[in-house]
């Protein structure tokens, strides 16, 4: 227990799994926590003491699934191994690794299609340095941020599973991180080493960046980004026993170089997760045709961090167009990628020293496939140039999806140049390992025969020794006449001769009894003991020698890590591009024209997810917003008619274009935008004390503060959570703010009063969802038509939703009385002043116009010059006009 407590003091923030023989044991508070989280039986050590020690444990071979459950719970695990089996005294132990949600390398516990990010944040003078690593692949990216709002959005976008802070981090930063990411594990590391330390020199001397969308840390990063990288590497090294060679050189990026999406927009557009919490119904589920886990992870990163640079977007679109137009090349590429698999995480395990022998042979196979793939890309480049020349000669049509605007060299060469089959590495692996090595060291042959003389000698002894034991069993059975005699082995007693009680009289005097079991006795002889020592000694030395040589092989692969990382990154990009090309061909998407102007023009746009569900029955619609013709579309119409789908599809098409994807439309001309804002639906945040209306207004405020003339804003209802007049007033003022800032805006509303914006503002236009009445019901046409809606259809929608007919009939009767101005009787008289005007909202404009006309007529009168008869006649005319209007 003294030894346990020493290790626990060193790892106070982790659950300490303490190896004792065939079990990992936990004690004290760790045992109580683990018993609850893992559903283990809580027992106690020294249970007869006044204060027994809580205790629970698991078999050593079952560690992996239990650790996986603790990672899901956001816990950290320190694994303390028993390094020897001493004949007496306390066994020597050591914490060999610390596993946390951000440093987990176990392929069976990591989701293959999503990264588990480890982040480090440092703060100084109101600025922040942020470093982010996908530890399983070794990628590190860093940035500096000077806006606290940008820091919040960056952390929400990354959604790390673990954040590392320095021990002296401000308390306000801790609270901020905890509030933003309540399920994220917050860990600490020691202060980074000062200038001149090996870690600082490594960060400062970063080589060329392997990842697109950034630059080498040495060329672009400031001091805070570098310090965040040091904090991250220091923590990783401390938890992994220094085995972090797989971590790549950091890449610096500027968060402003990407299209900004706040958390509300990511949620409203259902990019990675649908409202029900699953990926079904999310955008990623439609786009994902990737062949590998690394491609799937990169696709998710592209979706949540679209590009904001026209040249970079064009490079992606070029590559997608080439692959979409060349079925043979795309098919061969996807097949090669399937054979290669998740090279990023494979390289990560090798660099971290946790790879198995089969991982290394998988690496050799993948490297051979990389050579094949690189040759195929070169062949595709040659054929692409020939096709391009032929197209130029024949002036091929530019509208054809399959045409190639550039060669493979132009579109894909940047990635192809990063591919390296490392022939010398493949040769080394093939010379060292057997063709089919055991899954684990010590569980079968790993090192190839003939590679090492000592291995060959020990393997021969072990093989011959086992053969001798089989022969010895047959000889003893014949010599003693005991038919049931057999030679067995267990870890406690070693080799033994077992004789059933039935034949005890035939046991020779030279046998020495070792153990009694239920139906037999077990014996040993001097000759068997000698052979046991030879065989077991050879097997132990063989296992130790194989581990030594395998570790040496892993060490020899470390210089290849930069090249392996570049190849893995390039393959992930190729997989994502090929998957997007496959999606484009399957679903009939087109290449968007992304330009630096301000005009948005989508012809025949479709919602990618809804279309995937409905197929050919989806109704396409156009969207046109321009700087000088139309900036605000006021869209009215009933619920269920398709307003929200139309709003979302426009935002998604713009987003997809910025990701470098083809888009679901007949034609699309997309301007570069800096942000996409959405305000959709009703939700509350009761835990934070925010009502539905407060959440709505908070989101609206964020849009008004953050929007620019290059933003796209999508509003689906504003002001519905308060009184009618308040809501209309707020919605109107927000719309005018959008127009004043010249922001491209789609504004869906049930307030028909907002249709008057068109008369007051040249850049506002009314649109509605086409609806037809048929046999007493309504038919939604899902077409966006010019002009405001012709009426409200709330009662019809209620009937479609299954509201009982009796309630529907009553609602229609009440509506008729409201529209006639009669109210709903004495019981409802008090309510009329509250919502009577809203019930007559469709006729209110005509009433106001009539009142204005009457006011003008009265203002023109000169009563002092009128005769009594003239005044009486004028009053009679007014009364008659009022009666006629009342009858109408």
Report on the architecture of this protein.
This protein is α/β, with parallel strands linked by helices and 888 residues long. Helices cover 47% and strands 17% of the residues. It has 30 helices and 28 strands. It has a seven-stranded mixed sheet with strand order 11-10-7-8-9-13-12, sandwiched between helices. A seven-stranded mixed sheet has the order 14-24-25-26-22-27-28, sandwiched between helices. α12 (310-325) crosses α16, α12 packs across α20 and α17 (423-432) packs antiparallel against α19 (526-557). The longest helix has 38 residues, at 357-394. Residues 191-213, 387-407 and 826-843 have low confidence and may be disordered.
Short recap of the structure:
The protein has 888 residues and is of the alpha/beta class.
The helix/strand class is: alpha/beta
Q: How many E-type strands?
A: 28
* Beta-strand percentage range: 15-25%
- So how many helices? 30
Biggest β-sheet description = 7 strands, mixed
Low-pLDDT stretches: 191-213, 387-407, 826-843
Mean pLDDT: 84
Features:
888 residues, alpha/beta, 7-stranded mixed beta sheet
Draw up the topology in text.
Layout: H1 2-10, E1 15-20, E2 23-27, H2 28-38, E3 43-45, E4 53-59, H3 63-72, E5 77-82, E6 93-99, E7 117-124, E8 127-134, E9 139-145, H4 148-158, E10 162-165, H5 171-180, E11 185-188, H6 198-204, E12 215-216, H7 217-220, H8 223-239, E13 251-252, E14 260-261, H9 263-268, H10 283-287, H11 293-304, H12 310-325, H13 327-340, H14 343-351, H15 357-394, H16 408-416, H17 423-432, H18 453-480, E15 486-490, E16 494-500, E17 512-516, E18 520-524, H19 526-557, H20 561-587, E19 593-595, E20 600-605, H21 608-614, E21 621-625, E22 632-636, H22 643-659, E23 667-671, E24 675-680, H23 692-706, E25 712-716, H24 724-740, E26 744-748, H25 757-760, E27 764-774, E28 777-786, H26 794-800, H27 805-820, H28 829-839, H29 841-860, H30 868-887
Parallel strand pairs: 1-5, 7-10, 9-13, 10-11, 14-24, 19-23, 22-26, 22-27, 24-25, 25-26
Antiparallel strand pairs: 1-2, 2-4, 3-4, 5-6, 7-8, 8-9, 12-13, 15-16, 16-18, 17-18, 20-21, 20-23, 27-28
């Amino acid at each position: 227990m003294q030894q346990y407590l020493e290790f626990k003091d060193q790892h106070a923030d982790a659950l300490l799994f303490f190896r004792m023989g065939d079990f990992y044991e936990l004690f004290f508070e760790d045992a109580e926590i683990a018993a609850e989280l893992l559903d283990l039986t809580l027992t106690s050590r020294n249970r007869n003491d006044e204060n027994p020690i809580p205790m629970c444990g698991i078999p050593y071979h079952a560690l992996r699934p239990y650790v996986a459950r603790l990672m899901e719970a956001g816990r950290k695990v320190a694994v303390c191994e028993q390094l020897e089996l001493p004949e007496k005294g306390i066994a020597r132990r050591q914490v060999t690794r610390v596993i946390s949600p951000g440093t987990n390398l176990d392929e069976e516990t990591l989701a293959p299609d999503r990264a588990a990010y480890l982040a480090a944040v440092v703060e100084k003078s109101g600025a922040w340095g942020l470093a982010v690593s996908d530890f399983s692949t070794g990628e590190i990216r860093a940035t500096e941020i000077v806006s606290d709002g940008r820091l919040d959005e960056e952390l929400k976008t990354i959604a790390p599973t673990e954040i590392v802070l320095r021990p002296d981090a401000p308390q306000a930063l801790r609270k901020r991180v905890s509030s933003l990411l309540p399920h994220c594990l917050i860990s600490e590391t020691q202060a980074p080493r000062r200038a001149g330390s090996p870690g600082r020199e490594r960060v400062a001397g970063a080589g060329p960046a392997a990842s697109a969308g950034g630059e080498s840390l040495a060329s672009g990063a400031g001091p805070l980004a570098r310090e965040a990288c040091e904090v991250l590497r220091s923590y990783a090294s401390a938890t992994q026993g220094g085995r972090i060679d797989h971590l790549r050189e950091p890449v610096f990026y500027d968060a402003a170089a990407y299209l900004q999406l706040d958390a509300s927009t990511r949620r409203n557009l259902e990019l990675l997760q649908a409202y029900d919490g699953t990926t079904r119904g999310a955008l990623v589920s439609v786009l994902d045709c990737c062949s590998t886990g690394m491609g799937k992870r990169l696709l998710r990163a592209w979706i949540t961090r679209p590009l904001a640079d026209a040249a970079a977007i064009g490079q992606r679109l070029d590559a997608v167009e080439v692959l979409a137009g060349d079925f043979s090349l795309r098919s061969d590429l996807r097949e090669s990628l399937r054979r290669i698999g998740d090279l990023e995480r494979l390289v990560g395990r090798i660099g971290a020293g946790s790879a198995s022998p089969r991982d290394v042979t998988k690496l050799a196979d993948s490297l051979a496939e990389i050579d094949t793939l690189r040759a195929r890309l070169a062949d595709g480049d040659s054929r692409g140039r020939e096709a391009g020349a032929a197209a130029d000669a024949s002036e091929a049509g530019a509208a054809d999806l399959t045409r190639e605007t550039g060669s493979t060299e132009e579109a894909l060469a940047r990635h192809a140049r990063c591919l390296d089959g490392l022939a010398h590495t493949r040769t080394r692996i093939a010379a060292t390992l057997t063709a089919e090595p055991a899954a684990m060291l010590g569980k079968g042959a790993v090192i190839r025969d003939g590679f090492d003389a000592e291995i060959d000698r020990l393997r021969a002894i072990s093989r011959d020794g086992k053969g001798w034991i089989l022969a010895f069993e047959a000889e003893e059975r014949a010599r003693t006449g005991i038919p049931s005699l057999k030679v067995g082995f267990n870890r406690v007693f070693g080799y033994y001769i077992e004789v059933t009680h039935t034949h005890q009289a035939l046991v020779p005097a030279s046998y020495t009894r070792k153990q009694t079991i239920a139906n037999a006795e077990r014996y040993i002889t001097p000759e068997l003991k000698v052979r046991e020592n030879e065989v077991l000694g050879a097997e132990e030395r063989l296992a130790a020698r194989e581990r030594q040589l395998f570790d040496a092989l892993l060490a020899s692969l470390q210089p290849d890590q930069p090249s392996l990382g570049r190849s893995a990154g390039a393959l992930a990009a190729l997989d994502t591009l090929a998957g997007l090309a496959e999606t484009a061909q399957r679903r009939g998407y087109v290449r968007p024209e992304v330009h630096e102007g301000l005009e948005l023009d989508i012809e025949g746009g479709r919602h990618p997810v809804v279309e995937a569900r409905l197929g050919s029955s989806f109704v396409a619609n156009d969207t046109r917003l321009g700087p000088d013709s139309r900036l605000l579309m006021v869209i009215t119409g009933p619920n269920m008619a398709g307003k929200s789908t139309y709003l979302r599809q426009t935002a998604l098409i713009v987003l997809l274009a910025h990701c470098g994807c083809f888009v679901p439309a007949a034609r699309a001309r997309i301007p570069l935008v800096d942000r996409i804002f959405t305000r959709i639906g009703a939700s509350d945040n009761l835990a934070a004390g925010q009502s539905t209306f407060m959440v709505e207004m908070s989101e609206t405020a964020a849009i008004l503060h953050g929007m620019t003339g290059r933003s796209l804003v999508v509003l689906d209802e504003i002001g519905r959570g308060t009184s009618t007049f308040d809501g209309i007033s707020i919605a109107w003022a927000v719309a005018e703010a959008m127009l004043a800032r010249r922001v491209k805006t789609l504004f869906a509303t049930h307030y028909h009063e907002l249709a008057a914006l068109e008369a007051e503002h040249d850049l506002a236009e009314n649109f509605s969802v086409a609806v037809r009445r048929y046999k007493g019901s309504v038919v939604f046409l899902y077409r966006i038509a010019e002009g405001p809606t012709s009426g409200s259809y709330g009662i019809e929608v209620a009937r479609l939703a299954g509201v009982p007919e009796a309630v529907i009939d009553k609602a229609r009767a009440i509506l008729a009385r409201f529209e006639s101005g009669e109210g709903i009787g004495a019981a409802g008289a008090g309510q009329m002043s509250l919502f009577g005007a809203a019930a007559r909202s469709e006729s209110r404009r005509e009433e106001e116009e009539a009142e204005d006309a009457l006011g003008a007529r009265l203002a023109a009168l000169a009563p002092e010059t009128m005769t009594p008869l003239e005044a009486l006649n004028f009053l009679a005319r007014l009364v008659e006009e009022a009666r006629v209007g009342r009858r109408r």
